[in-house]
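hiii so my PI (J.) wants the whole complex modelled not just the main chain, which honestly fair. so below is everything: two entries, each one labled with what it is. i double checked the lines twice but i was tired so who knows lol
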Amino acid sequence: METLLPQMPEEQAHKPLAIVRLHKNAQLVLCCNTQASAWGIEPELSLSTALALCPDLLVLPRQLEQEQRHLQQLALVAYSFSPLVILYNDIGLWLEISGCHKLFKGYDTLLQDLEKRLRDQSITAINGIAQNPLAAQLLCQSSFQTQLPSSTAMQRNLLATDLTRLDTSHKQQQSFKQLGLNTLGDLFALPRSALSRRFDGQLMAIIQQLKSEKPFTATPFQPANIFHDVVQNPQGIFNKESLLFPMKGLLQRLCQYLTARQCHCLEIEWRFEPLIGEPQKMQMQLSGSQNNWSSLLTLSRLQLERLELPRSIEQISLYSEQFIEAPMGVFNLDLFGDQQSTQESCELIDRLNARLGIEALSQPILSEEYLPEQASTLGLPGVLSKSNIKDPSKAPQPLWLLTEPAPVQMRNQQLYWRQPLSIISGPERVCGNWWQSEQQRDYYLACDNKGARYWLFRETANQRWFVHGLFS
Amino acid sequence: MPNNNIAAVLTRTDTWRGRNQRSPRRTLSTGHRSLDLLLQGGWPVSSITELLPQQPGIGELSLLLPTLKYYADNNQLCVWLDPPYQPYAPALVGANIALNKLLLVRSKSHGEWLWAAEQSIRSGALLMAWTRQPSPRYADLRKLQLAAADSGNAAFLFSSPSKVLGSPSPVALRLELESLGVNQLLLTLHKMRGKAAGEKLALSLGEPWAQRTDLAMLPVDRHHGYLSNPILRLNG
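here's the output for the full assembly
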């Protein structure tokens, strides 16, 4: 029920509500809220009876797919409490907590934290604690236990459990009744040979598992390889401000996922889907790795400002496929704080990128080329890349390079570019591209009357002069 | 009961607390001894510095190379916002500046320019910004000045003196740069906190090239494009 509830508008949340499932062509109530229970509606009631009891009842069909996705999210939450999480038949989770005693400073703290986390996610859960998974399932109570019971109490509770809670066939339940067995304790009291004569091997296996005589086998939960999550909003979202709240939720889940997988993401993609029409995509490249939902949200928000969105958005999805392992710097073990300034730089680049676009950012790159315009190019910024410092050239080189060499005029036998120039040193010959079109240039240093220095060259082929840079 | 608000105000560096308790001015050495003396320690950090070169190319970048290297060596980003030309990588590498610490940003509007400048200052980067047309207003400069005061970083603003000198500015330091000759700069102090304006300083950024060559004397053979007389290479 809680899977569907967040999508309900506020005013409908206080009305009686029931979720129905299809069972042999009949619609049965699966669960209902407290307002509906007040009308006398209870699980396993047929839909027509329920509607007769309460005409205002809101009825929603069960969405198995969404439930599964929700359970996966819960498994991620649980994964931060225990390394061994097992999904059970899409309705429950098993957590092995015996090894997590020290981390949480006691089981009670662990249980309290877990309950708080679940409450933050607006989920009401019930739990059972026992020495093996099956027993824990049987001991599930109607509320969330935050105190670890003693092992004798666990055993006592287990023995007092009603046999009807055992997941067995109807026929078997009948034979329990005929034998006068009511609780698990009664069943355990019988000798094994007597039990195996009366009941099939399946029950014997269950009994052995309950007594922890046989190990429980199941595949533990593993976080998926890519992250994909969706928030649906049937009413539609009409402005960008109201998009931020669901986006925040999605990013928080992404970060939970990243923490569980101990990695950082390098790229995320948003998809904003209207009811009709093509979804609008928004890709965000991150210069450094990140695992921090608030900074991701700030970046998304900046980039969102530049985006034209469809009028109404029904579904927001978040994808992330590129991850790297979390560096140790997360814990800031770095003594001199270098890590922090790198991270600040990465964040700055990401913010500028989000607001101004990647085309507004560049970084000078040095290449092994002869022609100056090829030796110094502009590329995409990457703070983490290593720069290669070679032996610097002895010849004086300008700090500014003109994007395009500017032709120099000749006035009265003097070079003229903005003002008269005179040569002060040179030449230095540069040849390049001889395999394509031969370029041979003689570079000179020149200065004007004011003392500004220029980098000129003359093409040897056609004797034309150009300004290529400024010494500054 | 201690008041948290007052404690927060007292920890700020720009709160005036009487003459004796004033925190010392934080500066960053310019790399030029005489300039450090003029500026009472160096470039002011936690403040904007306005540099007003008479024309581009007279040495305004060379003046900042030591500062640039200092920031790059400290693993901090150096943001070049709207530079007039492209920085030439071999020259920067020659000055031992790591290229991956440089970031060129091109803004498309005044709003973007101001936003990018403020973000860079607040993120602990060294900002070198060339002002766009029209020049930033007093309020914009004040915004940047406050950002610099909060972050404790040096930031440099390049403007043209003819457009700026008539108007007041909230920045802490305003220096006009003129060229006295090749590699020779004349700095005029137009504004500095704690010092009278008008002081001038001649600064040498390297060896002066005094000799000039007549175009007709160039050692290039017109027909072959070949260096016919290598002795004529001057200052080699």
